[in-house]
Amino acid sequence: MGGKESKLQYFPFEEACKRMRDAELKRSKDAFKRVATLGGQMSDIVFCREVLGDGVPAGIANLLYRGFGGTSKGLSMKDLLCGLVILTKGSAEEKIKLLFGMYADDSYSYVQKDEMDKLVLDSEGQISSALSDLFLENDQVTFDYFRLWVKAHPDATEMTKWLLMEPMTVSLSDDTDTPTFYQTLAGVTHLEETDISELEKRYWVLKSQSKSGKFDLDTFKAMVCPPVPDAICESLFHAFDENRDNHIDFKEMACGISACCRGPGTERQKFCFKVFDVNHNGKLCEKEIVQMVEALLRIREGNQPTDTMEYDPFYKMDPDTVAKEILASHDGDKDGCITQEEYLVWTVNNALADNFLDLLSQICHLIMGLKPKAKEEEGEIIKEWLQRESKRSFEVGQVWYLISMTWWNSWFDYVSPQIQLVNGRLDNGEGDRVNGTEALHRITKGKHASKALPWDDDSVIIVNMITKGKNSEFNTQINGGFKSSTIPQRSQSACSSPIKTCLSASDSNGLTSISPGPSPKLRKKGLQQTPPLPVKPGPIDNTNLITPSNSKVMSLTNEGGRLRRDVMLVRGKDFELVPEVIWRALSTWYGGNIALPRTVIASKNNNGSPELELYPITVKLLRHQVIPQRPTPTSFSGVMSGIGGMALSMTSYVSNAPPIPRRYVAFTATFSKQHTIQQIYEFLCTKVRFIREDIRLWKIGSKDDSMTLLEDESMTVEECGVEENQSVLIEVRNKDLTWPEEMSQLAKNKTGARKEQVPTHKGATGLNNLGNTCFMNAAVQCVSNTWPLTQYFIGGLHLFELNRSNPLGMKGHIAQRYGELVKDLWSGTSKTIAPLKLRWTIGKYAPRFNGFQQHDSQELLSFLLDGLHEDLNRVHVKPYVELKDSDGRQDEVVAEEAWENHLRRNQSIIVDLFHGQLKSQVRCKECGHLSVRFDPFNYLSLPLPMDSCIHLEVIVTRLDGSVPIKYGIRLNMDEKYKALKKELSNLTGIPTGQILFVEIMGPIVKALPQDNHKVKTLIGGVLYAYELPPHEEIKPMTIEEEKGTAPKNSVGLNDIQRGLATKKIQQKLENGPSSMSNSLTVEDSSANNTPTHSRQPSDVPTMGSLQPTPENPAPKATAEIFSGFAIGVHRKMNLMDVYFVSSQKARPGLFGTPIILPCVEDTTNQDLYQFVWTQVSSDDSLGYEYPFTLKVVKKDGLSCAWCPWYRFCRGCKVECNAEDFNFGSSFLAIDWEPTALHLRYQTALERLYEDHDSVEESRKKQTEPINLDTCLQAFTTEEELGEDELYYCSKCKKHCLASKKLDIWRLPPILIVNLKRFQFLNGRWVKSHKIVNFPIEDFDPSSYLAPRAPSSASEQSVTCMCNSSAEVDRVPNRDIPDHDSAQMEMEEVNSEVSLCKKCQLTQNIPPTAEDPINYNLSSMSCHTGILGGGHYVCYAKNPNQKWYCYNDSSCKECTIDQMDYNSAYILFYERQSIDFSHFIPDVDGREPDLQEIDDEFESDLKKACVLQ
Fold first, then answer.
1. 1086 pLDDT band (50/70/90 cuts)?
2. 836-845 and 813-825 helices cross at what angle (nearest 10)?
3. Buried (b) or exposed (e) across 1360-1379, using 16+ Cβ within 10 A?
4. Cα 487 to chain centroid, rounded
């Protein structure tokens, strides 16, 4: 400080330090370090937020930042502290210099007129006339002239008023002390602040393990049962849950722990009484006493060593007998119950009650995180827990932790009672003895007992077998381990309690130490020397148990490391085993560097008995290096160059194939031999955030090219042959959905399948994704699994029918390429095939399918079927066919004519299998003329009803403070909030005029929707509906009221506590307001438009006199005024440990749900207080004053609505009195008193509401699936054509409005149904995620066939179109005769001809009602994801009658239940009762077309596809 470059050079930094106290200087420096940049500067944004606070206008803050010396680079700490000292402790002269620095140039020489005008205008919004006096003589002034001017005009600007006229309301320190949450809680419990801080950390860990996100009964029970008996788990939970809201909050947990662990004995026993008082009536009936005794006996049985159970006086005691004895001895009033006082008398010197207290203490310390107060207490807690656990058998999935024996011995010596020599004997100060050397087993139940092999949260519990079934069998003899006889005993009487430690000599020759290990010093030197006092052990150190690791990559699992194999690790000598709860407690109290969890698994060599796996399998997880993304193709050659990840130069035959992706070791992980591959997949997806469908695991052998895909997820690691240090590749799918390894194999030209990958069934072969080609793969697999067509291609029959001269075809190329691919798919010799040639051929003739963008699978399917049809069309010369109008003729005649015309030009296997006929009729709206056409189709595109309704959920809050209720409502998307009010009124019974909608986001009000606003779905917010008081007509004022002399009905605090205030406000709410408009509007602060009877706040007074008074109410210009209500927001003050100025020591924070406060004309301040209490209190218990204060604030809820910013006021208090509320602001802060907030405010009630039945009904309707019949009904429903779809009427001779209707006339043998999920609505494409239910078998669409006139005869003779005079038999569609498919030369014939038996294959005459048609699903294509992306998968039924899932290169057998019906997009149905062998053409005497694809075409393909 003091440099020439500083604007505050006149005020040295040393002077600033002298004026600051040491604590202020240190705190300010610490605060600066927290917010400063690496360069030691503070930005202007941080200055505004951290130094001044959000209440200061941004312009003012920036001006002060400039005066402090801040620049675009920042503000230094020295300049900041100097500026703060001048601001808070500076003299008038120093403040004038600060003002000059705000407006002066960077050199601190003069002030320019234009610059100062701009600064004042930016900071205050207006320029005072006093500024003209400053620049009368010159446009720039020096400091001396500025000094004289500002003394003459101290009110020239808002900044000068603040610094020179107003008393400074901020300082560098704030000595007021508000208790923190920890201090408040420590004051009402027996816990220290440090205890509460640690408990809070543990609480959030416990809460995070809950499925519901709350510390509920299920979470509590999973943690404490066992050892707590199941019968009292729920009652113990409710003893903690004091407010009965079905979950334990932190305050309840802390208070419960204090009561049962740290309180005096009487308070602890009272807590136990609460546990056994199931019905919460303050008494224990005989039934409750029996349940209590049963639980206490079980607890005592669990605490007692097995070998001493027979000598326990409580052993096999009858609970009913004990209960009767308790009642006989302690039931003073003989009412069959004992009170709490009588219970306390019974617990005196009773061991059963002491056992339960000990167990509660163990649970609170080990599970809930309380740290023991003394080391001896810590030792007793852990020893007793281990004693109880040693009696349990091993269970698969249990988790054990290894602890080095060196550390374990030092800890045991530390926590054991100190032994002293008393008269030549060892004594621990209580006369007890030491005896016994038997070691006890320690084990605990895993957190996920329901799973065979649990994953421990973010860890993998790993294991290798060393143990047997029972704990006693597994137990190795530990020299000096825990002894069964060291369980503490109070005495040997029947009422003794196992609390104290009993020590005795083990034999007459000497002493056996109670420590886990031998004590050489004690044994060597005898009892003549006092052993040194043990010291507290350091952090748990397990480094001597593991092999040092040189790996530089992180491990995904927390196995801690590989145990040493160079020496035999023996329990009791090298390590000790403890359950997870013990490990967690010890590592928290002492710290620990390495956790070594191991898991119990089922032994394969010992009839499945539990074993401990010390040496699990560690693998290296490899990943591919990221390959730079391909450039976006800009031409056809560029598009095709990307296929298969290959680069292409169209001018060279040399392929620039991309480099093979390199692999690197990314992680290591350790898995149990019995972990399944599915578990590993799930773990990797959770840990590394993969999507299951986007990763594959490969086991890499000794040679890098020896790889095995781990796809059988039911196999275990051991069954897959994964060995120690095995390399496993995590293959991640590329963004274009290709697999790197597949692309690498294509680049190596190794497309042949490995022997271990040959599928067991033909057709179970996947297709490689060549870059977002899943749309093609799914469509091809659907067509490939159409067995009649596949038989046709496998048999090579397509080579006999290639039509290379068809101008509409593709020279036979599509049919050839598809035929080659189908033969490969059904050869049964390859697991996957790359459809490079078919992909290239499709791109050649349909460039729209090029590139790496996702396309519509239905469009590809349509192109493929059309291409196959034209390439296989048996009609080589298509005749001219004239399209005739129906002209009133019968539908049968017109349909027959259209179908025959279609067959004259189209004859192929595709027509035979897939083509049907639709009836389309259009009716003119003007003349009624009906035009009927019959058109062929190869698939039915069924519309899905798009969601035209919006689902809204509204939480309704009533005036009486009852629990809010959430309602569900469905409205049309174009409806307005007025309609929503009407629907909500019908459900709630609240009149529409009394409903106020409020959009709430977090703790603030986001918006107040008006009736004429359009309803919308809220993003991140919640819609509330508040009940307002009813309306009432405005009554004329009395003379007394006009003069202001009318007496006011005041209600004092005593009346509040007697309930009179509640009656008064309820009466007012029932009578209703005298002035409230129907529309919810924010009144203009400058307009005088309030009702006649309302009070008008006075105008804004001059600065310097802004304190509200009864004569001078709040300044209205600074507040928003609502009509009929005010908004209250909950607020608390958050104490900051470091801050710059006093106003920032306690920063306001909003929380909870805002409250709408009805404000009528005669509403008093006291009414507002009572209404808030009604809304927030769960009971009517009110102390001597309300636990909160109401303050008027601005909309943000952080600063005062009445005071100017430089008062740094957080809100002026609304006194709790009988004065009328002055409506100075419509925003009130509910400032909670800190102690009441910490102890009385119930956080759980902030978002508490109940669901109305309408919520479930509305959600169900919104997501309710539809049936395929619904889609067919919509398809065949008559629709009105709009103005943009005018129909040209042949009768009116003009374009007219019309209606259109579609019907099915003929159904094909193979019916393809496309569910139109992609539709163009409101100018944009959208996808419908509607679930469609469709039948798998026996689908009968005959009910949607167009009606027909009854036929007079079932058979008739006509002339066939092939000019033969054979009789034509009309037969049902399901009975198709043999077909001679010799090539026919088509000629023009008249419309009176029909088909002979040679042509009846395609004569799909619909059946009558007596002949239903049934279809079975053969395959389907599914689309998941969003529009323009997503993924396609095919499900198809193999001829072996098994279903398979084709997911690109993956092909897995699946069941019907595993298929994804919800995302079905294309359905392939196969007609029942058809002998598809009749569709196979007779090729006898004909030669196949074996011509290869021409050289030019093949050369282009080679340019794109030739590899290394």
1. very low
2. 160
3. bbbeeeeebeeebbbebeeb
4. 48
Residue 927 annotated as catalytic = no
- CA–CA dist 601, 292 (Å, integer): 36
pLDDT category of residue 861 using cuts at 50, 70 and 90 = very high
* Highest mean pLDDT (candidates 624-633, 791-800, 1236-1245, 1360-1369): 791-800
Average pLDDT, the chain: 75
User: Would you tell me the crossing angle of helices 836-845 and 1495-1505 to the nearest 10 degrees?
Assistant: 120
**In whole angstroms, how far apart are CA 1147 and each of 178, 1197, 1234?**
12, 12, 13
Report the distance separating Cα 1219 and Cα 286, nearest Å. 57
Do the beta carbons of residue 416 and residue 537 sit within 8 Å?
Answer: no
Residue 451 carries which side chain, given as an amino acid letter?
K
From CA 1212, how far away is CA 1497, in angstroms rounded? Answer: 86
Nearest one of 958, 960, 874, 957 to 910, comparing CA atoms = 874
Q: Which of 285, 1431, 1445, 1451 is catalytic?
A: 1431
Which residue type is seen at 862?
Answer: S
> Residue 709: which of 660, 773, 753 has the closest Cα?
753
Residue 1380 CB coordination number (10 Å): 12
Task: Give the residue carrying structure tokens 């020590």.
Answer: 503
Cβ neighbours of residue 635 closer than 8 Å, sequence gap 6 or more = none
Do residues 1139 and 176 lie in contact, with contact meaning Cβ atoms separated by under 8 Å? no
Nearest-angstrom CA–CA distance, 1369 and 1462? 44
| Largest pairwise CA distance in the chain | 134
| Distance (Å, whole) CA 487 – CA 166 | 74
Residue 425 has pLDDT above 50, yes or no: no
Residue 1410: CB partners within 8 Å, gap ≥ 6?
none
In which order are the strands placed within the sheet that holds 1227-1232? 1146-1158, 1125-1135, 1227-1232, 1188-1192, 1212-1214
Q: Which listed residue (720, 774, 1422, 1434) is catalytic?
A: 774
Q: What is the DSSP letter of 366?
A: I
Selection from 1074, 1078, 1067, 1077 nearest residue 1038 by Cα = 1074
Distance (Å, whole) CA 1072 – CA 1060: 18
Distance of CA 1066 to the CA centre of its chain: 42
- List, for residues 949-998, the tens digit of each pLDDT value: 778 889 998 888 788 899 988 887 778 888 898 889 988 888 888 888 88
Say if residue 505 is exposed, middle or buried (CB neighbours under 10 Å; 0-12, 13-18, 19+). Answer: middle
Per-residue model confidence as pLDDT tens digits over 892-928: 888 888 899 899 889 999 999 999 998 888 888 788 7
8 A C-beta contact, residue 1061 and residue 1051: yes
Buried/exposed code over 1039-1068 (b: 16+ C-beta within 10 A; e: otherwise): eeeeeeeeeeeebeeebbeeeebbebbeeb
Condensed to tens digits (0 to 9), the pLDDT of residues 486-537 reads: 223 333 333 333 323 232 333 333 333 333 444 333 334 444 555 677 888 8
Residue 933 pLDDT > 50:
yes
CA distance 616 to 599: 9
Collect all residues with Cβ–Cβ distance below 8 Å to 972 and sequence separation of at least 6. Answer: 948, 949, 950
Annotation marks residue 190 as catalytic:
no
- Cα–Cα distances in angstroms (integers) from residue 1364 to residues 521, 878, 1358, 1468, in the given order: 120, 20, 9, 36
